Amino acid sequence: MSFLNHKNNQEHILPDVFTAVKHGVTARQVAEMYGIEVNSHGMACCPFHDDTHPSMKLDERYYCFGCHASGDTIDFVSNLFRIGKREAALKIAADFHMPYDPKGRPRRGQPVTPEQKKEWEIRQLQKDFREWRGKVLSDLNGDYRILTERAEQNAPTDRNTPFPQGFVQAYNDRTLVEFYIGLLETAPLETQINLYLHDRVAIAALDDRVNGRGQPRISVREKLEEKKNLLKAQRDGAVNQQKQRAAI
After folding, report:
1. Range of the domain at 179
2. Which residue from 5, 30, 135, 137 has the least number of CB within 10 angstroms?
3. Is pTM, for the whole model, over 0.90?
4. Which of 111, 128, 163 is the last residue of a domain?
5. What confidence tens digit (pLDDT) does each residue in 191-236 have?
6. Rounded-to-integer distance, Cα 80 and Cα 67, Å
7. For residue 176, how many C-alpha atoms fall within 13 Å in the half-sphere facing its CB?
């Protein structure tokens, strides 16, 4: 990424250390620099918890499916060496021989070109998508196990009777969960991002339903019936009180 002096678009200037590091090196690169083995799928054993099977995904950022640690390049080094973020940024810049302005400070009110704004928006979208994808894949895999058990518990026992409603619901939900997992694991990146943009609310609702967090919708008829039963219980209670007083 080029950093331009806005008074003279021909003159290059050095960025501050935070900007230089965040735009110049990925979390995967710093992990490998500091001795963490990353496999061909971008997975590594998480250094932030007792991890014997690779559960951390590393790319531009990092996310652990086990302990849910996540962040950018500077966060990774800060947590790995237990140092402050500025110390982490300076360490990365030194170890990767990255040029930066030692007196540079991110300043508010700097003019932003349309190209810079678009690039930052894309980076933010990619960041949000990666964090969402990691969490949702973990949730959906948990939902798949729950629904498999639920389908087995509600499986029909007699071939001559209709399928139990619990079995049908669990089976249908599991099919949908399996569909989303397949997309997030094998579909092209563009398809996955479209899923994030257009279907994440529906996926969250599915997860809520599987885990019993969704509030069931009550029809008008059910509300009227509930009110009718409440009034009846109140009348019955008043009658019983009158009978008790009469008996006294």
Report:
1. 115-210
2. 5
3. no
4. 111
5. 998 889 888 889 999 999 899 875 545 455 555 665 666 566 666 6
6. 14
7. 17
